[in-house]
Amino acid sequence: MAGRRARAGRGWDASPPRPGDDPSAPRPRRGRRGRAEESDPGAAAAPAPPRDEAEVAREICLRQLAVRPRTRAELAGALTKRGISEEVAAQVLDRYDEVGIIDDAAFARAWVSSRHAGRGLARRALANELRQRGVDGEVASEALGELSEEAEAETARALVERKLRTARGEPGAVFRRLVGMLARKGYPPGVAIRAVKEALAAQSAEAAEFAEQIDADALAEAEGEIERDGRATG
Predict the structure, then answer these.
(1) Angle, to 10 degrees, between the axis of helix 189-201 and the axis of helix 216-233?
(2) Of 110, 102, 33, nearest in space to 72 by CA
(3) Which of 75, 105, 140, 207 could form an SS bridge with 130, CB 3.0 to 4.6 Å?
(4) SS3 assignment for the chain
(5) How far apart (Å, rounded) are the C-alpha atoms in residues 216 and 194?
(6) Per-residue pLDDT of the chain (234 residues; tens, 9 = 90+)
(7) What's the chain's Rg over C-alpha atoms?
(8) How far is CA 224 from CA 48, 142, 187, 190, 217, in A?
(9) Long-range contact set of residues 37-44: C-beta below 8 Å, sequence gap at least 24
(10) C-alpha of 97 from chain center
């Protein structure tokens, strides 16, 4: 056994323990460079301090406003869904009112202008959309007042002429479809019927002959009565 290499470590040639060493204590971990890493078993990540509710509310509002302009009612609804108290929500929204970050009157004017130009919506449909977004009735009325009856009639006629380019079928069927399309966009019966009648009269001889037979005033009155009856029973 003379040529056998001596074992190192815990065998007979292990170094004697130094005074104060505890053989049962865990050995220190070594880092990448061989240095011992000190460990503190009692150390733990300190919990983050609770965030101020007003700060959270402001962040929610700013994220909402980054997507598109919002009314005060829309922002209030978003804050409620996230659990913000009514008191804090009112404070934040009042401040945003003061500095002009939210402005329901400006929102209503921009909404009426863009939705009428882009979607061809009439005042009745626009009023419904503003109401759904929590705009005050008086504020909505002021914004809708900037859309004149002449502008509505011109837009209705333009919508009908565009649809007529691809319309197929008998003049009577086309007439009903186009009047229905304008009604869904909020146009009163009189405006819708006259716009379709004028457009049909300029389309072809057959369509003009059909349009000549339409009594726009009588038909509009009948449609108006149907609508009033529907609202009364609804």
Answers:
(1) 150
(2) 102
(3) 140
(4) CCCCCCCCCCCCCCCCCCCCCCCCCCCCEECCCCCEECCCCCCCCCCCCCCCHHHHHHHHHHHHHHHCCCCHHHHHHHHHHCCCCHHHHHHHHHHHHHHCCCCHHHHHHHHHHHHHHHHCCCHHHHHHHHHHCCCCHHHHHHHHCCCCHHHHHHHHHHHHHHHHCCCCCCHHHHHHHHHHHHHHCCCCHHHHHHHHHHHHHCCCHHHHHHHHCCCHHHHHHHHHHHHHHHHHHC
(5) 6
(6) 444 544 444 443 445 555 555 555 555 555 555 555 555 555 556 666 667 999 999 999 999 999 999 999 999 999 999 999 999 999 999 999 999 999 999 999 999 999 999 999 999 999 999 999 999 999 999 999 999 999 999 999 999 999 998 888 888 899 999 999 999 999 999 999 999 999 988 888 887 888 788 777 766 665 655 455 445 545
(7) 38
(8) 63, 25, 11, 8, 10
(9) none
(10) 20
Amino acid at position 168, single letter:
R
Q: Which of 109, 195, 191, 199 is nearest to 145 (CA)?
A: 109
Tell me the C-alpha to C-alpha distance, in Å, between residue 126 and each of 64, 74, 191.
22, 17, 16
Q: Name the amino acid, one letter, at 161.
A: E
What is the b/e burial string over 97-133, where b = at least 16 CB atoms within 10 angstroms of the residue's CB? Answer: eeeebbbbeebbbebbeebbeeebbbbebbbebbeeb
